[in-house]
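Before relying on records like the one below, remember that each one covers exactly one chain. Contacts with other chains, cofactors or solvent are not represented anywhere in the record.
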Amino acid sequence: MKIQLWTIGKQQDASTKAAVDDFTMRVNRYFPCEWKLLPPSKASDPALIKKAESQTVLQSVQKDDYLVLLDERGKNISSPELASLLQQRANESRKQVIFLIGGAYGVDAAVRERADFTWSLSKLVFPHQVARLVLAEQVYRACTILRNEKYHHD
């Protein structure tokens, strides 16, 4: 199973890039993992921006991909529950799990409908750079939980 970490927006800031790259490299010990940066829309109206960005996402997602949308209105889950989600997808022989961080205005209803699961990192809204770091770290943590390694403490 391959893990894709998608984000709509600009390149990673140098201040967080090293940490995100480190956790991404760590995940690669367990599953092939890579980031995909989707360009933000150049439209001026937020509704048009969401629609254009969502079309890009929907054109890129394959039918068999398991899409996890990160959204503050999603379900809060624990690190062990995230590990279980990954294990279940691996047991289903999913080729790819995609974690999507939407654009500055979020995503439109079409992406919400396509998402197999909507996950909230927190009820708080984070800057994209922070969300990328938390996502990469939590996916790594889930992988260590699956292998019963010492990184996660209950």
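Residues 69 and 118 are 5 Å apart (CA to CA).
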